Task: structure prediction
Amino acid sequence: MTIFNQVENAFQFIGKGMARLFGPDDNTYPETGVQPFTGDPYDKVKQRHDM
Result:
């Protein structure tokens, strides 16, 4: 490879990275919405009696 080809490949590599970094998101996460609470709320008084 000539130096010109190596420089060209380096610019392409950096350019693709910048395009991915600053481009639009490619995340395809599902819409989840609000999740219901299924645990017990924290109670300070109850925690002191358990000790």
Observations:
- Residues 3-22 form the longest helix (20 residues).
- Helices lie at 3-22, 44-49.
